[in-house]
Fold this sequence. Notes:
Radius of gyration: 14 Å
Helix content: 55-70%
Shape: elongated
Distance between the termini: 35 Å
Order of helices and strands: HHHH
Number of strands: 0
Amino acid sequence: MLRKGLLPLALTLAAGCAARPAARRAPVSASASKPLSAESRKQVDRDYYEAVDAYMKADYARSRALIKTILAAEPGNAEALSLRRRVSAVEKASAPE
């Protein structure tokens, strides 16, 4: 399902988020302070890798939908927030003027 090259991309996206100062991260809501269950964590991880795969295939609508699902479960997910910014930037760049 996922291509071999996605893991390095996902790790790069995650590393880019981790390297940012805490002040630039999105605030985490109080409802997000509860840790996810193991099954929910697995689902969030699967959705993230599928969102990255959709992004790599230029299926931005699918990527956005998966990101929305991730952020509903975990609003402060830094990787999903970073990917959402990337998708938005690509869509803005390719939008007709």
